[in-house]
């Protein structure tokens, strides 16, 4: 092997890795490929082009709060109905100001609607005063007045709007804390469900009121507008409650999965402490959700209880005569109200279970033998925090919203139905009363005739005896 000794054959530049490069081995025409897209001439933007919205997964700063954006269709319906006068001066900031266009709009709409409802209710009371019929018919008549009760819930929601705004701002803080901890935005994906609820509920509620108008005799066409509004309000509040509880459930599952992934690393003492702080935020949001809607949903639950009781009683009172066309509206109202009441109780129960039970299961299944002392202490503190911080959704401390509440309401409902049916049975029917009255008149006439005949016979006998005595 021949070696080159002349320094002219080697490069004068720095020798990479200490190995000289021979000039003869270098290719004369070396081709270089660049994996770079050639620059293009920018085209002017079309006026019809759609500008993409900022993505929370790319933008390091949260552009819009994800929870509000997911529930936005239902919030929009509530704001259009004048029920939720919420003000958003900027994305992620929710406020309630008395001197705001939202409050003025809600007040004007409510005054106009309440004036119309008062006129109809006074007209309805006059009908009830002149009604003469059976007890169950009077109860069914009063049911139309009970349908107007949700008008009282609108000022209650105005009073609680400030608390609702605080809960939404708390969700923004939770999103920021989650993004700082996990490095990605919170994924909820409830927008499609919210959009379906915001579109389907007004359609179904309007159809239900129209069916009731067709089947009921005393339900006039001029009463359709307020009843449609109140029907939509009742069921859209149920959809709003479902979305709040579903958001809690989804976030609890997401944080639980991330926490399980964090426990797979060695020595996760710091991570366990951060997830404990994040869970405490989520547990506080679950409690605040119930406190912010305590008075409004207490009223909604009691209203549904009353509607279900009266509707089922109206159906049961017609069993002897058979079901007719007028009972379709009562049956539809009873079924929908029972479904909504169960839905409210079940969703709150499911959210509470996800927020608390899921994390307790994750913590109880942790293998502590391979962890250091600090990590074991943090896990034990996390488990103690789940025990000491209740995550039940309570309506202002009056009662917890869960499946037990639904069972209690059904039990009470059955009791009231039995009392109403017994009261109906104890009232005599008009036909029976007229028959008894006729029988009483016949018996009185018979007894009077008998007494008259007896008196005549006795008088004749005494006269005959007196004549015989005179002859003797």
Automatic annotation (TrEMBL):
<dbReference type="GO" id="GO:0043025">
    <property type="term" value="C:neuronal cell body"/>
</dbReference>
<keyword id="KW-0472">Membrane</keyword>
<feature type="transmembrane region" description="Helical">
    <location>
        <begin position="295"/>
        <end position="316"/>
    </location>
</feature>
<feature type="transmembrane region" description="Helical">
    <location>
        <begin position="194"/>
        <end position="217"/>
    </location>
</feature>
<feature type="transmembrane region" description="Helical">
    <location>
        <begin position="328"/>
        <end position="344"/>
    </location>
</feature>
<dbReference type="GO" id="GO:0007165">
    <property type="term" value="P:signal transduction"/>
</dbReference>
<keyword id="KW-0807">Transducer</keyword>
<feature type="transmembrane region" description="Helical">
    <location>
        <begin position="139"/>
        <end position="159"/>
    </location>
</feature>
<dbReference type="GO" id="GO:0030425">
    <property type="term" value="C:dendrite"/>
</dbReference>
<keyword id="KW-1133">Transmembrane helix</keyword>
<keyword id="KW-1003">Cell membrane</keyword>
<protein>
    <recommendedName>
        <fullName>Gustatory receptor</fullName>
    </recommendedName>
</protein>
<keyword id="KW-0675">Receptor</keyword>
<feature type="transmembrane region" description="Helical">
    <location>
        <begin position="98"/>
        <end position="119"/>
    </location>
</feature>
<comment type="similarity">
    <text>Belongs to the insect chemoreceptor superfamily. Gustatory receptor (GR) family.</text>
</comment>
<dbReference type="GO" id="GO:0005886">
    <property type="term" value="C:plasma membrane"/>
</dbReference>
<feature type="transmembrane region" description="Helical">
    <location>
        <begin position="224"/>
        <end position="243"/>
    </location>
</feature>
<keyword id="KW-0812">Transmembrane</keyword>
<dbReference type="InterPro" id="IPR013604">
    <property type="entry name" value="7TM_chemorcpt"/>
</dbReference>
<comment type="function">
    <text>Gustatory receptor which mediates acceptance or avoidance behavior, depending on its substrates.</text>
</comment>
<dbReference type="GO" id="GO:0050909">
    <property type="term" value="P:sensory perception of taste"/>
</dbReference>
<dbReference type="GO" id="GO:0030424">
    <property type="term" value="C:axon"/>
</dbReference>
<dbReference type="Pfam" id="PF08395">
    <property type="entry name" value="7tm_7"/>
</dbReference>
């Amino acid at each position: 092997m021949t070696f080159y000794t002349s320094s002219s054959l080697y490069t004068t530049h720095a020798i990479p890795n200490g190995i000289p490069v021979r000039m003869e081995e270098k290719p004369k025409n070396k081709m270089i490929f660049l994996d770079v897209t050639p620059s293009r001439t920018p085209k002017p933007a079309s006026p019809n082009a759609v500008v993409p919205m900022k993505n929370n997964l790319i933008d390091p700063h949260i552009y819009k709060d994800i929870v509000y954006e997911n529930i936005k269709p239902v919030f929009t319906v509530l704001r259009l109905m004048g029920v939720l006068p919420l003000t958003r001066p900027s994305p992620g900031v929710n406020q309630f100001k008395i001197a705001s266009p939202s409050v003025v709009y809600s007040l004007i709409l409510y005054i106009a609607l309440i004036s119309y409802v008062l006129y109809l209710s006074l007209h309805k009371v006059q009908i009830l005063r002149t009604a003469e019929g059976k007890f169950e018919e009077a109860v069914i008549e009063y049911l139309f007045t009970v349908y107007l009760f949700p008008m009282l819930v609108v000022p209650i929601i105005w009073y609680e709007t400030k608390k609702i705004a605080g809960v939404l701002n708390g969700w923004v803080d939770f999103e920021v804390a989650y993004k700082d901890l996990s490095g990605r935005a919170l994924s909820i994906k409830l927008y499609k469900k919210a959009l379906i609820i915001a579109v389907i509920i007004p359609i179904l509620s309007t159809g239900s009121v129209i069916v009731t108008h067709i089947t009921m005799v005393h339900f006039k066409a001029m009463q359709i507008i307020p009843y449609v509004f109140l029907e939509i309000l009742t069921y859209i509040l149920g959809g709003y409650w479902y979305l709040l509880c579903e958001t809690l459930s989804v976030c609890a599952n997401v944080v639980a999965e991330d926490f399980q992934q964090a426990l797979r690393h060695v020595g996760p003492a710091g991570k366990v402490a951060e997830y404990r702080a994040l869970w405490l935020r989520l547990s506080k949001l679950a409690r605040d959700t119930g406190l912010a809607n305590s008075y409004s949903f207490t009223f909604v639950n009691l209203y549904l209880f009353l509607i279900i009781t009266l509707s089922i009683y109206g159906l049961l009172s017609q069993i002897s005569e058979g079901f007719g066309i007028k009972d379709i509206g009562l049956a539809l109202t009873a079924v929908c109200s029972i479904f909504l009441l169960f839905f409210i109780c079940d969703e709150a129960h499911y959210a509470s279970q996800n927020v608390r039970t899921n994390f307790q299961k994750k913590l109880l299944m942790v293998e502590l033998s391979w962890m250091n002392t600090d990590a074991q202490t943090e896990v034990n503190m996390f488990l103690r925090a789940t025990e000491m911080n209740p995550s039940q959704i309570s309506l202002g401390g009056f009662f917890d919203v869960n499946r037990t509440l639904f069972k209690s309401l059904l039990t009470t409902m059955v009791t009231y139905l039995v009392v109403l049916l017994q009261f109906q049975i104890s009232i005599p029917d008009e036909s029976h009363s007229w028959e008894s009255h006729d029988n009483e008149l016949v018996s009185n006439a018979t007894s009077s005739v008998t007494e008259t005949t007896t008196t005549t016979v006795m008088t004749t006998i005494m006269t005959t005896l007196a004549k015989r005595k005179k002859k003797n």
